[in-house]
Design goal:
Elements (H helix, E strand, L loop, with lengths): L6 E7 L9 E7 L5 E3 L4 E3 L11 E3 L7 E6 L6 E9 L10 E10 L6
Antiparallel strand pairs: 1-6, 2-5, 2-7, 3-4, 7-8
Length: about 110
């Protein structure tokens, strides 16, 4: 079942308000550990995707310190881990700090 629109899964709140921090998320399947590629809009095996290609930047709402976590309507039905990172350097890297992590179920995962 495809969803008609992207949606906000939840909001990440920077504890210090507007700080200029950069946050991004990665989406990983709980079923097979494949990782979402937001550019090609498909799931990729761990060995066939770079860190940079697995990142979805979170965009702050103005200067509020609030970052909507937007899920693409193109994400296939499954159960996922959403992992939000705080970018420490000039580009996303696998050494960035995990800010938050949770599970989300997308689409018609039960077949009815």
């Amino acid at each position: 079942m495809a969803l008609p629109n992207d949606w906000i899964e939840r909001h990440l709140h920077d504890a210090c308000g507007h700080t200029g921090n950069t946050y991004y998320m990665r989406l990983i399947s709980r079923t097979d550990s494949k990782i979402w590629n937001p550019n090609s809009k498909e799931m990729k095996a761990v060995g066939s995707i770079t860190w940079a290609n697995s990142v979805t930047l979170l965009v702050e709402e103005g200067t509020t310190g609030v970052f909507p976590v937007v899920m693409s309507k193109d994400v296939p039905a499954d159960t996922y881990d959403i992992i939000v990172y705080k970018q420490l350097g000039g580009a996303p890297a696998n050494t960035d700090d995990i800010e938050k992590q949770w599970e989300v179920k997308v689409g018609d995962i039960f077949g009815f």
